[in-house]
Amino acid sequence: MKKHLVIFLVIMVGMIGLSSLASASTLDEIKERGTIIIGTDATYPPMEFHDEEGNMIGFDIDLGNAIAEELGVKAEFIDTAWDGIFPALDSKKFDIIMSSTSITEERLKSKDMSDPYYQTSQAIAVRKDDDSIKGPEDLVGKVIAVQIGTTGDFAVSEIEGVKEIKRFDTTDKAYMEVMNKRADAVVNDYSEVSFRMTLLPNMKVAATFKEGEDIYGITMRKGETELLAAINEALAKLKESGKYQVIHDKWFVTTGN
Questions:
Q1: 203 Cβ contact list (under 8 Å, min separation 6)
Q2: Where is the Solute-binding protein family 3/N-terminal domain (predicted)?
Q3: What does the alpha-carbon distance between residue 45 and residue 32 come to, in Å, rounded to a whole number?
Q4: Is 0.90 topped by the overall pTM?
Q5: Predicted confidence band at 23 (pLDDT cuts at 50, 70, 90)?
Q6: Residues paired with 127 in a beta bridge
Q7: Of 19, 91, 149, 171, which sees the most CB atoms within 10 A?
């Protein structure tokens, strides 16, 4: 009888242990491994991009490291193409996405997103010698280059009468299309466009629109309530301490954002 009781207790302890592992939250896993894994599409200066040595740098990178520090862990960034970044999150290749991701009703249907941490507008970039586009209404009859699945893509899709929307997997290819005169304009977030103009002397910002409507949030899988609360708390602390402003000014003061 005692032998059977001991076996029963061993089985119960094992089941409890397995149950605890199965119910461990993503936040628990992050703290256990000592690292938060962050997905980003590092083709989007000044938010996330590579320096000349191949290191990932940018506003989101610095902010991600600061959030990790608040959580008591290190940050590890995984460079992932934008068109595959959400499926990669769903398959648990990383814990969160920090990649200039706008908070939209459609995304909130399948993902949780943090409190806003950056606000911007849409911008139209054209060749410097082109004065035909002064606002979104002038995109009618034009060929527009965008990065697929971005809010720039969505914004242009709303404009009736656009001749053609050329969609690319990176913003670099969209700009190249305009510089090679195969498209008339690029539409993208002003945060990216304004910085990009410092690197492309033959292009300019023709106009901005949807002023302040593009609001970035940190993305995670639906139902990650503990992680969401921890991320929001970290963001709040960084803003209160002034660390957020230091990071912001490092990347944006010179470009007027």
A1: 125, 126, 127, 128, 175, 178, 179, 196, 197
A2: 35-255
A3: 32
A4: no
A5: low
A6: 203
A7: 171
CATH superfamily of 121-214: Periplasmic binding protein-like II (3.40.190.10)
Nearest-angstrom CA–CA distance, 219 and 224: 10
Convert the pLDDT of each residue in 38-50 to its tens digit. 999 999 999 999 9
What superfamily would CATH give domain 29-117+217-252?
Answer: Periplasmic binding protein-like II (3.40.190.10)
Tracing tokens 């708390």 back to the chain, one arrives at: 233
